[in-house]
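Problem statement: downstream parser choked on a complex file, so we are re-checking the raw output for the adenosine-5'-triphosphate run. The parser issue turned out to be on our end (a line-ending mismatch), but while we're here, posting the original submission so the record is complete.
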Amino acid sequence: ILMNPRVWEASGHVATFNDPLVEDAVSHKRFRADHLIEAWIAKKDPESTLVVDAMSTEEMAAFIAEKGIKSPDGNALTAPKQFNLMFETSTGVTEKGKNSVYLRPETAQAIFVNFKNVLTTSRKRLPFGIAQIGKAFRNEITPGNFIFRTLEFEQMEIEYFVEAEEWEQHFEAWNKWMEEWAAVIGLKTDHLHRLEVVGDALAHYSKRTVDFEFDFPFGKKELWGLAYRTDFDLTNHAKASGEKLEYTDPADNSRKVVPHVIEPSLGVDRTLLALLVSAYEEEEVAEGDTRVVMRFTPQMAPVQVAILPLMKKGGLPEKAEEVLASLAGIARCDFDVTGSIGKRYRRQDEIGTPLCVTIDYDSLEDNAVTVRHRDSMEQERVAIADIASYVVKKLV
Ligand code: ATP
């Protein structure tokens, strides 16, 4: 997380990882100039083809002045200026010996500076990928929209190393896999859109970028990115470190190449938010009776099986403990004894639990339980001896 500033100089982040900042001249509240311009266009000129991401600071200043764009509080705005998003801290124990370091704003660079270590220890052949999941930090000007934009967040990125001339086929493959994966985890695919990033809107390192956007309740916004980063990062880190970051062709030892990179870049928190939006449903189950149900796929549901002894007494909790024990290591379970059974079912619907297993007085006699399904609300009787294999079948 704390990385040497020279990494961020080599990657271009110190010079260019900026957002355009404007301030309300009266309240001194800070806003993203590009967001205010986008909001103005959406309201006043929706047919406009202007690519706001491609505007320079000067162009934004001119646009704001010409259109008379005000802060959301109705006051004048200061001229936009570039604001670096990296959090800075220092290492060293004495005041004099202190060095600036940055908290990483993405996981990608941590992969590039590890490239040689991974290559020499794993001896992979092209194409191959290195994936990393972990915290990233950005001093965002306008955090918010629940967990959509936060100052610290979880990223998962893959740097996929390929031969330069093969980049297009790998780009297309990842482009397809990302959409398929969205469907697998239960994102509403009709809420997912691709945006081909063009011209000056492309990041300094990218030759092609596709943003995957999602219809959030607060608008269509970036969910993930897919970028062709060329050999930009490895080349720059090699230059800055004096270390060769090359790959030797195993079929021809004299052929050394700097691999090119396809990068799927995903935010865990944004994905979770999109999952919550996709799963949420208010369903009328009877006249005037509405239930909230989270329709997570069984794999993504935080709780997969709820074990519900009908009563707190009469040996039912003990019997339920037996059922719970038989599911240990098989499913993520919850155990709930409080409230009427109807209330408990609704509670589990809101959590998105696919299966509820109820233990009643008959269970003591027939060694069977009632399984209630979240989506259909149908119930069936299953022998306790079969419950583990039954759950495995339903959750796969
Ligand atoms: P945005 O335009 O929304 O600021 P970005 O283009 O700066 O996003 P990337 O640098 O491409 O984002 O980061 C890759 C992914 O990391 C994003 O697609 C998103 O899922 C996630 N991400 C980026 N910034 C944040 C943040 N502040 N909070 C939560 N997730 C984030």
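For whoever reads this later: The chain has a mean pLDDT of 95.
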